[in-house]
Each structure stands twice: as C-alpha cells, then as structure tokens.
Amino acid sequence: MPGGTYCNADCFILYAQRFENLETIAVTSRRRDGRTVDARSVDELAFSEPVHVSTVQRVSLDGPLVEALVRYRTAAGAREWTRWRNAIWSFNRANTDGDTVRYQTEWVLMAGAFQEILSANSDAEDVARCFTETLVPSAQILAGGTRRSAAGTFGAGRSLRYEWMREFYGVRGEFARGRVAVRRRSAWEPTEHLVLAAIAFPLLVRRLLQDRAGLVLGEKELAAMDAFEAFADQQFFDAPPGCRGATDSWWARLVMAKRLDLARLRMVDELAQARDPEA
Known about the structure:
Elements: E1 24-31, E2 34-41, H1 51-54, H2 63-75, H3 78-93, H4 103-118, H5 124-134, H6 160-170, H7 172-176, H8 190-213, H9 219-232, H10 250-275
Antiparallel strand pairs: 1-2
Helix pairs in contact: 2-8, 3-4, 4-8, 5-6, 8-9, 9-10
C-alpha cells in the first residue's frame, strides 16, 4: 500500500545462487517450444536482481493471514480452494512491478482475480455487486456527489466502490481481446485503477477470511476498508497539502484518520461500559 510497508510478487523469487568449487554449470532457460541448456563458466557468470526487486530492502509475511489461509485451505473443498488459489495467483502475477509487463495484462489478471475470489459471473454489474456487498465500510460514500462523478457514468444511489469496480471490471474484456487502448468515458486513469485494485484485493481476501476462517481484523484493516472510498475519490497521485516526505501520502493520511475515528469510538464504548457495566 502507498505510504506503508511494500513489496511485490517478484520479491519472493530466488534470483541468485552461490556456487563453490565449480568451474562450469548448466544454465537452463525457458523457450516457447520447451527449454534450452547452456554450459557456462562460473568465473564469467553473474546473477543480478532486477531493479524493481533490489529496491525493496525487507520482506515479511503476515502471520495471521497465512494461518487463516491454511485453515481455509484445510476446511474448503478442492473446487473452492482451487478457485481461491487461481485468484491469488492471478493477483500476484499482476503485481510483479516488472517493467516488461504491460498494464493491460495486469488489468486482465486482477479483474479475473476479483471475479474468482467473489465467485461472481463474468459481468461488470455482478462483480461490482458482489464486491460492494462483501467489502462494506462503516459509512459508505455515494458516487453521485463525488469529485469523480463528473468524469464517470454513475448510477443514482450507488456507492463509489460499486462504480469503481464496475468501471474497472468493465474494461477487462476489451483488453483480453487484445485492444491496447479503450475509448470510453472513465472516472479513473488506468494507473489509478491499478493502484485501487492492488489495495482492494488484499482487503477483500481478509474480509472473506474473517467469515470463513476466523481471521481477526485489526484496527488497521478496518480503517483501510473505511478509507478506501475516500481514497478512490482523491486525485491521489498528487501530493497531499503540506507533504512531509515520501511516506506521506493520501492513503496514509486517510487510513490514519479512520484509525483515530475507530479509537475514539472504542474509547466512548469503554467509558460507557465503565459507567454502566450492565448496559
């Protein structure tokens, strides 16, 4: 997420191996028609990390999330878990940060990941409906009065997250058919769509695992769900007012504001319980 701990899918690939007491090695590489094997001198061989990986200094796993995924894999049937595995794989392959991957490819993979994890029909309206019903903030933002409404084709009374997903998934088919550019009225730029999708999918997985595997959502996750629509309504590639550095972003500010709101509500509840324990 912008303004916080970050890694990409390629960070989990082994890029280099140390060899000792060898003069030559066989290097195997992929070809469309199979593979090729080439003998190389160790003294003349170098393995290097791609730039988009080497800039990430520290990678860690979310322990509770991994444990919840393992619990769900054990409890779910083979067909259900295959659907989840496909969705997670597609999301990861869309988020490598590799310069050679076109954004249209990332778009198709991420749109498919949302459809799979939600078990929705291949229809923008159905995917948007399932997404909206699953990822529910404490207070939603209606799309009609937002900054984005002037550029989009929004329906009356629908939430901003519904309109975002409807627009995002609606382009998938055109990119999947090989179209490089799409001419349609859009409330979000392509790069904005991809950032929002990269934030929304992990939140969606956590929300589903809350129900299916007992994952406990912390204040950070709940605040992120509450902040998503407000973030989608911002021109979030612009620096926020009085920006204090690279880690200061619209996302970081909005999540922090929601965390403070949650903390205030918790404090009010605790004070009420202290005054009247039987309430």
